Amino acid sequence: MADKDGNQLAKDYGLNQPAVSQSFYVKGMDHVDWGMKDRLSRIFRPESGKTVMLAFDHGYIMGATAGLERLDLAIEPLAPYADALMATRGALRSCIQPIHNKPVILRASAGSTVLNDDMSSEVVGVDIDDAVRINASCLAIQVFIGANGECSSLQNLVRTIDAGARLGIPTLGVTAVGKEMERTHRYFMLASRVLAELGAHIVKTYYCEDFEKVVAACPVPIVVAGGKKIPEFDALTLTYNAIQAGAAGVDMGRNVFQSESPIGMLKAINAVVHSGFTPKQAFDLFETEKNTLL
Ligand code: 5RP
Question: Which CATH superfamily does the domain covering 34-226+246-255 fall into?
């Protein structure tokens, strides 16, 4: 080496200290690769182990959804307050600046719209190479357990898990609830467990009664969808109850971007998820933020 003369002698080998044994804080992810852990640690904050994902992928089945008519205007101001952004590649490329440095959960299933009574027929709608170009931190696939498209949607899931695993990209399995599907803990427990057993690294599902059983029976982190817009206090209560039951966060859309104050709502949800605020405390924060931002 050019500078070998004058180099300090290496001597601090910590001979009396055993090698540090490290376990990874994201549920069920101790044995995945380093790159995948790195991506998961961008999604789930290391200090709380939880995440607030902002979902705005609704257009892939609903077209211009209320609150998302102009993605550039609606989402840009919200991005700084979310831990992760869940979106389609089209929305990202056309409307969202690549400057926020937020992990992307890339919607990777496609193939149906709300105009179809049976929405359970989807395909994998994104090539893994394009997911890499987007710099996706996670791929999201919708699965329709108990519906006509059950088998094909499970194929979409496992193909995506395999493609992502080759590159260290985790997959989020979304448990879809069609018109025919029940919203009981027995349904969500079965659906979540199936997705996790097939290799999903994160499961997105809906809050329901006995939710702690759904969480307990699922060996990977569960994030909760918000569903249709409900009053802000109720959405914060849902978030609180889900976190108390063991959820690792939320993946919320309409209850944020259709709120009177989307930023206020994101701040309040963050307070519940990461700081343990009660629904009342979080709602007070929402009201304060709403009035400040008016
Ligand atoms: C649809 C989705 C959406 O991202 C999801 O429904 C989250 O949004 P919302 O909180 O509005 O339900 O995964 O399949």
Answer: Aldolase class I (3.20.20.70)
**Mean pLDDT on 163-177:** 96
Pairing of strands 138-143, 104-107: parallel
pLDDT at 256 over 80: yes
pLDDT at 17: 92
**What residues does each domain of the chain span?**
34-226+246-255
- 267 is a catalytic site residue: no
What is the distance in A from the centroid of ligand 1 to the CA of 3? Answer: 58
Is the model's pLDDT at 38 over the cut of 90? yes
Whole-Å CA distances, 148 to 42, 118, 131: 35, 8, 28
Look at residue 172 in the predicted model and tell me its pLDDT: 98
Q: What tens digit of pLDDT does each residue of 89-118 get?
A: 999 999 999 999 999 999 999 988 999 888
Q: Which residues contact 211 (CB under 8 A, 6 or more apart)?
A: 185, 188, 241, 242, 245, 246, 247
Token pair for residue 88?
A: 């389609």
CB atoms within 10 A of CB 289: 17
Ligand 1 atom at minimum distance from 176 CA: 14
What does DSSP say about strands 171-175 and 202-206: parallel, antiparallel, or unpaired? Answer: parallel
The residue annotated as part of the active site, out of 27, 204, 267, 290, is 204
- 55 CB less than 6 Å from ligand 1? yes
* CB-CB contact of 178 with 195 (8 Å): no
What is the number of the ligand 1 atom nearest to the C-alpha of 229?
11
Please give the model's pTM, rounded to 2 decimal places.
0.95
